[in-house]
Amino acid sequence: MSENAKKAVVLVSGGMDSAVVLAMARERGFALHALSVSYGQRHTSELDAAARVAAQLGAVAHKVVNVDLRSIGGSALTDDIEVPEAGGAGIPVTYVPARNTIMLSVALGWAEVLGADDLFCGVNAVDYSGYPDCRPAFIAAFEQLANLATKAGVEGHRLRIHAPLIDLTKADIVREGLRLGVDFAATVSCYRADAEGRACGHCDACHLRAEGFAAAGAADPTRYVDAG
């Protein structure tokens, strides 16, 4: 990595999508500053995965910021609400109120401190689970906000929010990750993963992940609680 490489802040959850985004930002020549958010999610194995992925893909820094979204609840991921089996219409109970807005805001703050003009996130509007903060309109609106609400933006440093997976299918994401050498075995996608990062195999996230590997014709390295 060149000492003169442009800096980018990349949101890294520990899941497969954000791992691919981190690899894409690396391919574009950015100095990677990985950011994970401990927001009171049901398990911390995804944060362990984020640290693994950041190290494997050569991030120059990996920061974990604590934001207590469990204190407001309202989601099966941050409250005493059962994570449902895959399926169902409408916005699911795994939607975390304001999560992506808050995460991007934290990333924006760190980017200003670093002098980085580029932020990357792994939102996806094709295979997503119905979350309103994974749509192109949200990303465009947040980029506009970033340039209106920051010292960097008003002083002429154009801030860019990159969401390179937004129009890709899960199979496309798998293929891109394999091309870039992402170790998908290091990632954790499951909403109900155990302390070792093993997946339940039944939630929306598990089904989307499995379908993506199947559609891509690639071996799925996911470890399940029930190996049978």
Structure characterization notes:
Helix content is 36%, strand content 11%. The termini are far apart. By secondary structure, it is of the alpha/beta class. The mean pLDDT is 88. The protein has a single domain (7-216), classed as Rossmann fold, CATH 3.40.50.620. This is 7-cyano-7-deazaguanine synthase.
In summary, what is this structure?
The protein has 228 residues and is of the alpha/beta class.
Written as H for each helix and E for each strand, in order along the chain, the element string is EHEHEHEHHEHH
Number of strands: 5
**Integer tally of domains:** 1
Measure the end-to-end span: 43 Å
CATH superfamily: HUPs
Q: According to CATH, what is the class?
A: Alpha Beta
- Write down the CATH topology: Rossmann fold
Q: Point out poorly predicted stretches.
A: none
* Helical coverage, percent range: 25-40%
Based on the coordinates given, report the CATH architecture: 3-Layer(aba) Sandwich
Mean pLDDT score: 88
Main structural class? alpha/beta
For the largest beta-sheet, the strand count, sense and barrel status come to: 5 strands, parallel
Q: Gyration radius, to the nearest Å?
A: 17 Å
Shape estimate: globular
Q: Give, in spatial order, the strands making up the sheet with the most strands.
A: 3-2-1-4-5
Number of helices: 7
The amount of beta strand, in percent, is: 5-15%
